[in-house]
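Let's practice the habit of predicting before peeking. Look at the sequence and jot down your guess about where helices and strands might fall. Then scroll down.
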Amino acid sequence: MRIFGVLNDVLKRHRRVLYMAVAGLLLLGSGGTSAGQADVENVKVERSADDSYSFHVTVRHADTGWDHYANAWSVLAPDGTLLGERVLYHPHVNEQPFTRSLSGVSIPDGIRKVIVRARDSQHGEGGRSLEVELP
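Done guessing? Here is the structure:
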């Protein structure tokens, strides 16, 4: 019974350290720290002769592998209508930030600005998006 008294004293004195250790183990068991959400860092837009647009979008996301990576970015009208989407089919763990392009995006007359937003495989949309003025 003396051993239980000793253990109880240790627990009382080192409770905060033990809580931190347990929290750390739980975090590691859930796959490590979260990669967070995908952010759009830069957008370059070019207008083609056929009045369509090409978008060159730079995305940053702390991809951890197939379980959590930036998996797409979208071009949206100001009202949220989807105008174009570039699907990203694999993680970019060692290539951050990365730029990918999408051509042939048709923009309806009267729209002067679009929103470019990225998403990732765990959080969906929600990181930093950019509003871009069309050339």
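How did you do? The first strand starts at residue 39 and ends at 47.
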